[in-house]
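Predict the assembly for these two chains.
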Amino acid sequence: MKTYFHKNPFWNNEEKTEAMSILAIEDDNGNVENRQQLVPQLLNGQTNPLWTKLMEEVGPSIIDSNTEQRRKKKLKERNESALKRRQQDKSKRLEELFSLKLKAFEIKEVRECSDKKLTAKIRASKSETEMNAWISVVLLKSYENESKEEN
Amino acid sequence: MSRKKKTKGFVVVASANFYYYVSAINLIHSIKEFCPDSKVCLVTEEKFLDKGADIADDIVICGDHKRDKIWGMSNCPYDKCFYIDADCEVVHEDIKTVFDKFDGNDVLFTALVEERSYIYAEYGWGTEGLKFDWCGGVCLFDKSKPLVKTFLDDWYDLTVKQYEGSWWPTKENGERNYDQFPKSLARWDQFSLWWLLNREEKYKKLKVGRLDKEEDARWNHFYGYAWDHTNGKEPVIQHYSASQAKADMRNDYR
C-alpha cells in the first residue's frame, strides 16, 4: 500500500497552519481510494507526519497558488449567484408590470384612449396603485365625453 | 433619374388570439413613445379591430393562422421594415437607430447562441450538431429587394404546409425524414426558416445577418434571462414570450 497527496490542496486558515487536501490511498492491486484529508500542522503539540509529507510532496508555494485560485473561483461563483438572483428579481418585477399593462389594455376605454400622454402614464406606472389611478383618469375622461355626446 | 426613397416602418402582427391584439396595441404605444414620427403597421384580423387600432398608421387585414406574422411581414406597406413580436415592448430610445443596422444585409435576426440556450424551448437536434441559428422574435428586412419578398412568401407558405402536415424533409426513398429532423421541430417556424436558409439553393445569395452583432440580445431581450447578456447595456426590446400573463390571458380568450 502507498499513499500520496493530489496536487490540489489549499490553506484552510489564514495563518497557513492547516490545509485541506485529497489523500490517495493505493492498495497492492493498484486500487485507489481518494479521501478528503484535513492536515493541521500540529497534532497534540507535535508536528503532524501528514503535514511533513504534504510539504514534501506538494509544498507551500503550490498550496498558496491553489488557495488564490480557489478564492477567485469562489468569489466568481458568489458574484454570479448574486447576479442571477438580481436578474430573477428583475424578471419577476418586469413580468408583473407587463401583466398589469396588458390588463389595463384589456379595458376598452384604455385601449381606445386617444390621449397618448395618458396611455404613456399608464404604461410608465411602476405599481398597480399608480396604474389604477391613471386608469381611473382615462375612465373619467371617457365618461365625460360620453356625457357630452349624450347632451 | 431620381431614385425613390425607401419607406421605413415597424410591423406588428396580431392573429389567432385576442391576447395578441391587446398585446400589440401595448407594443405600438411603446414604439410611439420613443418614435412618435415613425410609421407603424398593425396586421390583424378584422374581428379584433376597435378604436384601439387607431394608434397604428396603417392597418392590414390578415387571416387567422397563428403564423400569419410571416404573411404580415411580407405584406406590410413599407420597404424597410422592422418586425417585432406582439408580446414585446420597446423600453429604450435606441429603437430609433434600428433602421441604421442593416450593415449590408438583406434580412437580420437576433441569433440563437449556446450561451443563451438555457432559455430556448428547442435549439439543437439529431446527431450531426444541427441547430437553429436565428430567432424570429424580431426581424429587420428590406422588402423592396425582390429576393427578400420571395423569401418571406416562401417562408410563410412552407410554414403553413409544415403546420398542416403537408410538408416535411424526405429521405432518398421518399419517406419523411424524422431520423434527421425529429417531429418536435414541426411546431417551430424557425424550422421552415432554417430549411430555406440552409437547404434551398436560391437563398444562398440572401444576405442574412445578426442584428447589432454581439449586442443582439438587447433587441430581443427575453424577460427570463438568468444572466446579463447585454454587457451591462439596457435592453431595447423586452420579450415576454413565456410569461404567466400570456398563459393566463390566452386561457381567458380561449
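Chain A has two domains: 2-81, 105-150. Residues 2-81 of chain A form one domain.
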